[in-house]
Specification:
mainly beta, five-stranded mixed sheet, 48 strands, 3% helix
């Protein structure tokens, strides 16, 4: 009791000496806790100590596991904040329950430290600079030309997953990582990088006068080739020994492009420069179907491009036409004992193959037909023809025609124009004949723009000789 009284008197006396009353004397408390480490902090030595800081100024170095207390007490009601100022080498420490308000001695600040390890490996085949590696897509390591090894400066705690990847490939090389992923349980030394020189794939381009040409390399790399380009190169490079194949994904408008040279093969030790592309205007075929044929018939397109057909079924002229070109299918030579007529035989190519030309052949016996072809007839116009002054036959399109009334053997024929088309004049050639003994098919009706012209002639009689 005397000791307590003396202590209390000492505190009061000290307060009075400092200018405070007994009621104004401050009560202080300490801040501390416990440090724990999976690998142990004891024995780490200089430079291996964790340094704690309270409120940014009161520092406390720890070199072993166990309890700790900051030297500077805090007044009741004060705030405290314990953080790590310096991590120990080879370990990573974190603080729990590190902040709050003092109203008693704080003893529950917890510092937990775990061992950390580095990630490293070898580098082979790299003779240029520019290789950038990434650790867990965050830490970056720039590898110098000719480096035989590397190590990330960032260490990872034990049990942490790691992934080493190539962030940037060096120019002209392709690098890959072996053993690049795993879980940290010690220093990783085998995340090895191997690099190989790469080569480009390209070629020449000819005839490209429109946009829309898209090329593919091995089905993935894409190259859009601009109008008028004389050459191209894929941005994706391949290592020696890799197979390559260039294909056309999209054709340009109004053109058909094809590959030549070496569009597929195996990468050697030089760039591929002969996967060539040549483009030409897109063309379309003219054809259709023939029925009733018992021999051979010769068809003409636009007066030429003869095609001999010897069987019923489909037919196609060999010469293709560009978009917008006119076509006109006629019968060049009739089959023996038959007469063939063409329907849907004329028109204009419109971005598609023509497949609806119809040729119908009929057999003649004791009577023969008179037929021919009309040329030059304007669109939407009609010409009226007569044979031997009989019933008029109206023809409304260029191509073949047949008078419906047959003639007996030995008869004569005379084809005339009985009604001209508006604004045009049609004339007949090969329009007359006699003593027929087969179908007549060579009558030609030629139409041209303009009205018919006439000559004026007569005689003058003068009396008296002058």
């Amino acid at each position: 009791m005397k000791l307590f009284t003396k202590g209390l008197l000492a505190i009061v006396a000290a307060a009075a000496f400092a200018g405070y009353s007994t009621a104004e004397a401050q009560v202080t408390y300490t801040v501390g806790g416990e440090a724990a480490s999976s690998g142990g902090l004891t024995g780490l030595g200089a430079g291996k100590t964790v340094i704690l800081v309270n409120n940014g100024s009161d520092s406390l170095p720890l070199s072993s596991n166990g309890d700790f207390t900051f030297a500077t007490p805090l007044a009741s009601g004060s705030s405290y904040s314990v953080t790590i100022a310096v991590q120990p080498g080879g370990q990573l420490c974190s603080v729990s329950n590190g902040s709050g308000t003092v109203n008693a001695n704080v003893a529950n600040v917890s510092v937990n430290c775990v061992s950390t390890y580095t990630v490293a490996g070898s580098v082979t085949g790299l003779t240029v600079s520019g290789l950038v590696l990434k650790l867990n897509n965050a830490a970056t390591k720039i590898i110098a030309s000719g480096a035989g090894s590397y190590s990330f400066s960032t260490s990872l705690p034990s049990g942490t997953a790691y992934s080493v990847s190539v962030g940037i490939q060096p120019s002209g090389y392709s690098c890959s990582v072996a053993n690049g992923t795993g879980t940290i349980s010690g220093n990783v030394t085998n995340a090895n990088v191997s690099c190989a020189k790469t080569y480009t794939v390209g070629g020449s381009v000819s005839g490209l006068t429109a946009s829309g040409l898209i090329l593919k390399l091995n089905g993935t790399g894409t190259k859009i080739v601009s109008t008028g380009a004389g050459s191209y190169v894929f941005s994706t490079a391949l290592t020696s020994g890799t197979n390559y194949a260039v294909t056309i994904q999209s054709q340009p408008s109004g053109l058909t492009c094809s590959l030549s040279g070496n569009p597929a093969g195996t990468i050697g030790t030089t760039n591929v420069a002969d996967a060539n592309v040549s483009c030409a205007p897109t063309t379309y075929t003219v054809g259709g179907n023939i029925a009733g044929l018992s021999g051979s018939v010769t068809l003409l397109n636009n007066g030429g491009n003869a095609l001999t057909v010897s069987a019923n079924g489909s037919f196609t002229f060999t010469t293709a036409l560009s978009n917008g070109a006119a076509y006109g299918v006629t019968v060049g030579t009739q089959p023996s004992g038959q007469t063939c007529a063409v329907t849907n035989g004329s028109g204009t190519i419109n971005v598609a193959n023509v497949t609806n030309v119809a040729v119908s052949c009929t057999t003649t016996t004791n009577s023969y037909t008179v037929a021919g072809n009309v040329f030059g007839l304007g669109t939407g116009l009609s010409v009226s023809l007569k044979n031997n002054g009989g019933t008029a036959l109206t023809v409304s399109a260029n191509g073949s025609f047949i008078f419906p009334a047959p003639l007996s053997a030995g008869s004569s024929y005379a084809v005339t124009v009985s009604g001209q088309p508006t604004g045009q004049t049609c004339t007949v050639s090969n329009g007359t004949g006699s003593n027929i003994n087969g179908n007549v098919w060579g009558v030609i009706v030629s139409c041209a723009t303009g009205s018919p012209t006439y000559t004026v002639s007569g005689s003058i009689t003068m009396n008296g000789g002058h």
